Hints:
Layout: E1 8-10, E2 17-25, H1 27-31, E3 41-51, E4 55-69, E5 76-92, E6 96-99, E7 102-106, E8 111-113, H2 115-124, H3 136-144, H4 151-157, H5 162-167
Amino acid sequence: MGALDHFELVLRDLKPGLNEFQFEIDDSFFADFEYSPVAKGSGKCLLSVDKKTNLLTIDFDITAKVELVCDRSLEPFDHKIELEQQLMVKFGDEDADIDEDIVSVRWDTQTINVAHFIYEYIVVSIPMKKLHPKFKDENESELGSIVFKSDEESDQTDPDPRWNALRNLN
């Protein structure tokens, strides 16, 4: 039995209407995904599954803490993740990803493993630029020191007269 087997929803066990589940996320969860950008992390995922005749609406409420490596200092740091996502599962003739928030499964599908969806939502929420929190104040002060010129100042120092014609379009 793999670490991701307990993330399966058995469809015949779901009652019509709202069903709720809670899943724990730990290091073994991320270890089961090859080439994962996250090696360590912990948290929980609350799932609300609304079962209808030919449709499942799954609401993910994920609260986790993952360990990332700072792009600047290469120091590890903890990054908090809090997100809510919704996934629609339609029943049809074939398995297909219709949209990023809509998938189709065959009518005879017995189980749906939600681990893949939880993993994708967490990984997508990781920022492109991973900076240790100790650099947060430094970046804000850099942005605060940028001084923008007023239109009058830029007219005086702008050597290219074509910009003046463009400013008049406003």
